[in-house]
UniProtKB/TrEMBL annotation:
Gene Ontology annotations of biological process type: amino acid transport
Protein name according to UniProt: ABC transporter, ATP-binding protein
Domain ABC transporter: 2-229
Keyword presence, Transport: yes
Family: Belongs to the ABC transporter superfamily.
SMART domains named in the record: AAA
Organism: Limosilactobacillus gastricus DSM 16045
SUPFAM superfamilies: P-loop containing nucleoside triphosphate hydrolases
Length: 230
């Protein structure tokens, strides 16, 4: 379980303070999908960067299964990022001169389980694309590779930053289905950041951000399940 308590992020721009995140408190549970929803500039990236250990809060506490993430040294934070967090980005960030399989194997190697790279691609429906390079894949397929790459780290936290932002609506739903599938793993919390409110129905929890403040947190007891669509 990951708990944020009264987390603030203040950027100093010249003599101005920008309160990118104010008093953020919430919990992410394993085996659940959380949608973080908010318009441009509401603090989504700031929150994601802190969750992923790419940035530190100005103050507040972050408890990750008992580990105090905000107190970690630089090395501690690097290890946290490497060992616990998988990332999925809007524009996939695949290495262009490596095949789908090699892109996944590189990440899997970090955790010493590169023997399973093929099975991660199989999980995302790309058994037939192992030896294709990114430029031979569609946008949806590239996003599948990037999800396989993130899952290959066996992350306890899977962070997805606008993962459907560059995809058409039909492909987006398939990616959404894969994220729901990933959240069935009882060891993984899945977080999807989006500005698109149509996705809120698919999450177990919805956190709404507005001007750096959590406006509302809703538990969705019967999210729409996209099973079979992935
Ligand atoms: N490094 C920084 N220095 C100064 N201000 C920043 C910095 N990063 C973000 N901000 C400011 O913090 C606020 C929140 O930004 P953030 O990027 O987290 O929003 P967002 O919801 O992710 O927006 P978008 O959807 O456009 O990416 C904005 O006012 C932004 O200008």
């Amino acid at each position: 379980m990951i708990s944020f308590k009264d987390v603030n992020k203040i950027y100093q721009v010249g003599d101005q303070e920008v309160h990118a995140l104010s008093q953020a408190s919430f919990t992410l549970e394993k085996g659940k999908l959380t949608i973080i929803l908010g318009p441009s500039g509401s603090g989504k990236s700031t929150l994601l960067n802190i969750l992923g250990g790419m940035d530190r809060p100005t103050n507040g506490t972050i408890d990750f299964d008992g580990e105090q993430v905000a107190q970690l040294s630089d090395t501690g934070l690097t290890n946290y990022r490497r060992q616990k967090v998988g990332f999925v980005f809007q524009f996939y960030n695949l290495i262009p001169n490596l095949t789908a399989l090699e892109n996944v194997a590189i990440a899997a190697k970090l955790n010493g389980n590169d023997a399973q790279s093929e099975s991660y691609l199989e999980q995302v429906g790309l058994r037939h694309r192992l030896n294709n390079f990114p430029n031979q894949l569609s946008g949806g397929e590239m996003q599948r590779v990037s999800i396989a790459r993130a899952l290959a780290k066996k992350p306890q936290l899977l962070l997805c930053d606008e993962p459907t932002g560059a995809l058409d609506s039909k492909t987006s739903l398939k990616i959404m289905a894969l994220l729901q599938q990933a959240a069935q793993n009882p060891n993984t919390s899945v977080v999807m950041v989006t500005h698109n409110p149509t996705f809120e129905q698919y999450g177990d929890q919805v956190i709404r951000l507005k001007d750096g403040v959590i406006d509302r947190i809703d538990d969705n007891h019967s999210p729409v399940k996209l099973e079979g669509l992935a």
